[in-house]
Amino acid sequence: MSKVIKNGTIVTADRTWKADVLIKHDKIEAIGPDLHGDHEFDATGCYVMPGGIDPHTHLEMPFMGTYSADDFESGTRAALAGGTTMVVDFCLPAPQQSLLEALQMWDNKTSKASCDYSFHMAITWWGKQVFDEMATVVDKGIPSFKHFMAYKGALMVDDDEMYASFQRCAALGALPLVHAENGDVVAALSEKLLADGNNGPEGHAYSRPPEVEGEAANRAIMIADMAGVPLYIVHVSCEQSHEAIRRARQKGMRVYGEPLIQHLTLDESEYFDKDWDHAARRVMSPPFRNKMHQDSLWAGLSSGSLQVVATDHCAFTTKQKRTGVGDFTKIPNGTGGLEDRMPVLWTRGVNTGRLTMNEFVAVTSTNIAKILNMYPRKGAIVEGADADIVVWDPKRKKTISAKGQQSVIDYNVFEGVEVTGAPRFVFTRGELAIEESKVEARSGHGEFVPREPYQAVNRALSTWKEITAPRKVERTGIPATGV
Length: 483
Ligand SMILES: NC(=O)NCCC(=O)O
Ligand SMILES: [Zn+2]
Known about the structure:
Number of strands: 18
Structural class: alpha/beta
Number of helices: 15
Shape: globular
Bound molecules: N-(aminocarbonyl)-beta-alanine, zinc ion
Distance between the termini: 88 Å
Radius of gyration: 23 Å
């Protein structure tokens, strides 16, 4: 069975040209003029792109006394509906839990995934067992480890643990990720706000000013530099952490930054809404910021100091959010966005001239495929790549609404946003999942994508680390001690 996408304009991260694309089974078989197959899809007026990759989702995640509401079934349907053909979720061991046991639990959740997926492993505690099991996790195709510098008393790791883990990542050819916020300061600020009677959702934003993010980003960058390992900073929300990344990159460090579509387009005024539910539904960490920070993030994407736009999709229902009535620290942190990331980014980015089409492909797909070491199997329109393809209609209009969305929650943080630009067809490893707004995604089609450790970047860093390592100066004629 073969399919051909006819008359499309192919857009990749570095070029744009007109051609047909032939899909055989689950791969791209050929690209060229006048290809023919059993099924032909007319892409006239559309752009043919590599499927989006969202490297930051939390599906059915145990967190803050509950579970995020979207599982791998609804979450991957939401992804496909918005043009994303692969998600990378976080496996989150409980404190003292074996990483391998946690991985088994996460594996069990994926049987209904309708698009491909991979995992990052979270380091939530430290000890010999974690040190040893990290090697097995890498062998299983998961060479990336997330560290929470926030959530004191729950997921947070201290600097000594982070340094030990980063060194282990360096030795294993793995990439450390960090959630950069100073958890000690956030905890102290939260306590003070509550004591002063500031218990509403706006207290969440007050408790996490941009400075706590900037400090943590700088600290993580320094620790990665000492360990001789690259670093990926998730959900960069403000100029302070962007500035840290920019500065590190100018110094030659391999530091990557990932803003979210929410931070790019929604601002802090959401937390001051008079409606408690409205504000609480938008509680996530880091919180939304003001326009100055948003401008900084957009500039980072176009200039290349930030590389990836993700969602951190971690959706909770209104009922779950209401656990925090009277105490903002108990509102489950997280928002949805999987279905909306690409249409909103296209509308606010490409349609306004803040991003080119090629930059759009780079930040939604190709860059992360390269950073996570799965390029060109993913993130590329080339012969032999997985046929994860989006036929993007730049004229398709939609008003975002919770009604009819794939996510199971009862609201959408982008409610009422009008988008122009959305998928017309979406193929996931050769299977048609979206056709003209109709979701044909097949539950169970999604497969785990194993990833190799990072040879090039880690080898470069460890070589330089070795060349510049402290060396004892061998001296002759050492004077006698002065005593
Ligand atoms: N971001 C957020 O508020 N929730 C998901 C967990 C995390 O990544 O911090
Ligand atoms: Zn996080």
